[in-house]
Amino acid sequence: MSEHPSRVLVLNSGSSSVKYQLFDMTDHSRLAAGLVERIGETGARLTHTRADGERREVTDAPLPDHTAALKAAARELAADGYGLDDPGLAAIGHRVVHGGKRFTEPTVIDDAVIAEIERLVPVAPLHNPANLTGIRTALELNPRVPQVAVFDTAFHTTMPEHAARYALDIATADAHRVRRYGFHGTSHAYVSRRTAELLGKDVADVNVIVLHLGNGASASAVAGGRCVDTSMGLTPLEGLVMGTRSGDIDPAVIFHLSRVAGMSVDEIDDLLNKRSGLVGLCGDNDLREITRRMAEGDEAARLAFEIYTYRLKKYIGAYYAVLGRVDAIAFTAGVGENAANVRAAAVEGLVGFGVVVDEKLNTTPGGEPRFISPQYASVAVAVVPTDEELEIATQAFALVSP
């Protein structure tokens, strides 16, 4: 065992699930990973994966709440020799979605931090309560090990006021904390840094547009390692077209639907967040299925794809203008890493900006960071797999290590 504790457990607590990963920060190796699903529901199960790839499933243990779920995860970790009471555990890092303006960096959790995260629940009602449950449960299980909150919004707090503020009455906006916060920050931080490494440059010398494309999707403009703009706003609804979210929309659509369709605020909220985006346009939010349907001549799937990639192209152009000089465009997350047709369509017609992809490089699968642009291109286009859990572990370990 090393002289100092070197392991970090990362917890991502959702409303009915807990994801966890254990890292050894001496070499950033992943020692174990797991997922507890359907907490408090029939059919709850835990899937635990060891470093060697062996998987174990637990389906017979009662998992009525997060405390039971984390205890079950702790038992699986202990079976591999990594219990929560292990002296080699340096910290537990928690993903917290919303940190507001106050939390600009990873923070050791205490009562005051918990109270502030709770105060932010109104601006993150779906996420912060679940994150708090995970924090409180982990503290109950091991109050001695340092617990660190790593906030999705923190990376975006470097945005200048002219990018972060909406053009609303300032007194009203400030009274209700209405501003652009951005999300997926740990991913944007990790990918922008890895892109600089891929270029062989210091992150301080690189301007990059990061496109995090999963079921939720966001873009960011990163200048010298600092976010200067991002597509998501007060909530994750703003910006790109997503799997089930509309992204940018005329706010008067809300008033129109209320007056003309007689829809309530909750019904409109459900529409924009759960029944819009790709699924609203064509009934599917899986780009693989949409691509299959396009190949069969499905016009609804084709239109959904075009709307999705057109919005991407608009943000690439906007952030090119914001940055002035772009060294790289980095695609990441499930769609960004795997959908070659999305990447090609998003940059099509941008050759005048120095942005082009090589068809062979783009369509060749690979799990490592790689360029998909030809050597002559003035702007590198890259696929950079994200690792938000490793980023959380890295930030948490840096905060607590001697």
Would you mind describing this structure in some detail?
This protein is an alpha/beta fold and 402 residues long. It contains 15 helices and 14 strands. The strands form two sheets. The protein has an eight-stranded mixed beta sheet, with helices on both faces. Strand 10 and strand 11 form a beta hairpin. The two termini are 16 Å apart. The mean pLDDT is 94.
Give the gist of this structure.
By secondary structure, the chain is α/β, with parallel strands linked by helices.
Number of helices: 15
Largest sheet features: 8 strands, mixed
Strand order of the largest sheet: 5-4-3-2-1-6-8-7
Q: β content, as a range?
A: 15-25%
Average pLDDT metric: 94
| Quaternary structure type | single chain
SSE topology string? EEEEEHEEHHEHHHEEEHHHHHEHHHEEH
Structural class: alpha/beta
- Note the gap between the termini: 16 Å
Ranges where pLDDT stays below 50 over 5 or more residues in a row are: none
Please describe the topology of this protein.
Elements: E1 7-13, E2 18-24, E3 29-37, E4 45-50, E5 55-58, H1 66-79, E6 89-96, E7 107-108, H2 111-119, H3 128-141, E8 147-151, H4 161-164, H5 170-175, H6 185-199, E9 207-213, E10 217-223, E11 226-230, H7 252-260, H8 265-274, H9 277-282, H10 287-295, H11 299-323, E12 328-332, H12 333-338, H13 340-347, H14 359-363, E13 370-371, E14 380-383, H15 388-400
Parallel strand pairs: 1-6, 6-8, 9-12, 12-14
Antiparallel strand pairs: 1-2, 2-3, 3-4, 4-5, 7-8, 9-10, 10-11, 13-14
Helix pairs in contact: 1-3, 6-15, 10-11, 11-13
